[in-house]
Specification:
It is a single chain. This protein is mainly α. It folds into two domains: 102 residues, Voltage-gated potassium channels. Chain C (Four Helix Bundle (Hemerythrin (Met), subunit A), Up-down Bundle), CATH 1.20.120; 132 residues, Helix Hairpins, CATH 1.10.287.70. It is flat, with a radius of gyration of 33 Å. The longest helix is centred in the C-terminal third of the chain and has 74 residues. Helix 1 packs across helix 3 and helix 2 packs antiparallel against helix 3. It contains eleven helices and no strands.
Length: 298
């Protein structure tokens, strides 16, 4: 009885080992498929195709002519995206959610799979977010986004300065121009909120001269003393600081990637050098052994 139990246990252990080996082989093949350049190109092409189909779905005439085809293509693409995410979950398992880009893809595809009923019709519009997967798929786009995220801490102080300038300028504009009975002055500078919105429009240089400043100058000829420094400070100084920080962050990101590549190359070269040294030591040992044998033979 004991020998039979041991035989059964041994057979069970063998079956379990074979199953684990087969599973490991399947996961390895699936990993190669998921991480292959061919898969990346296919997913990128599908994202671009999906962007086109989602755009065509906004046309009533196109939907009337080929709506069924577009919806079928959309469902097929979503199914492929879901299979891709499922394959990554099988390959990476818990480590899948350690990558922010994987979480981003998971959320985008999850929104696509959510039922878009009449009460949740907004989810139907959110399908266009699938196009944003290009950011996680294309390395250059991902590098730009990472640089923008890295620049956010440096922008906080500039945002604080900009908000302070906006608040002070809004209070001044409301006090200086908002008391005038002219309807335009009341609309543009009647309250601090209206003044902030008007000054934001001026900062963006959108219809600021003929639309706001010149009508204000007709009532307050000295108003240029207020508007010119505000435009110079916000539009040309502060906003250029934003650009400088973003450019610096992108440069730092590029240097970090280049340093990582250099480190990897040095590591590979060091490993190859060690392998060559080991081979040379082996050759020296073989040569010394041959010499010893020749000396023993006479």
């Amino acid at each position: 009885m004991t020998s039979e139990a041991e035989a059964v246990a041994a057979a069970t252990e063998t079956d379990r080992s074979s199953l684990q080996t087969a599973e490991a082989g399947f996961v390895a093949r699936l990993r190669r498929l998921v991480e292959s350049a061919w898969t990346l190109r296919v997913i990128t092409a599908l994202i671009c195709l999906n962007a086109v189909t989602l755009g065509l779905e906004t046309s009533a005439s196109v939907m009337a002519a080929a709506g069924d085809v577009l919806l079928t293509v959309d469902r097929i693409i979503v199914a492929i995206f879901a299979l891709e995410i499922a394959a990554k979950l099988v390959v990476y398992r818990g480590s899948f959610f350690r990558s922010g880009w994987n979480i981003f893809d998971f959320v985008i595809v999850g929104i696509s799979l959510a039922p878009a009923s009449q009460s949740l019709s907004v989810l139907r519009a959110l399908r266009i977010l699938r196009v944003l997967r290009l950011i996680s798929v294309v390395p250059d786009l991902r590098r730009v986004v990472q640089a923008l995220l890295a620049a956010i801490p440096g922008m906080t102080s500039i945002v604080g300065v900009l908000l302070l300038v906006f608040y002070v300028s809004s209070v001044l504009a409301t006090k200086l121009f908002g008391s005038h009975p002219d309807p335009n002055m009341q609309e543009w500078f009647g309250t601090i909120g209206a003044s902030m919105y008007t000054l934001f429009q001026i900062m963006t240089l959108e219809s600021w001269s003929m639309g706001i400043v010149r009508p204000t100058l007709e009532l307050f000829p000295w108003a240029w003393v207020f508007f010119v420094p505000f435009i110079v400070l916000t539009s040309f100084a502060v906003l250029n600081l934003f650009i400088a920080i973003i450019v610096n962050a992108m440069q730092s990101q590029h240097e970090a990637e280049r340093e990582a590549q250099s480190t990897e190359i040095r590591s590979i070269a060091h490993e190859e050098g060690d392998a060559i040294l080991r081979q040379l030591e082996g050759l020296r040992a073989d040569i010394a052994d041959m010499r010893r044998r020749l000396d023993e033979r006479g």
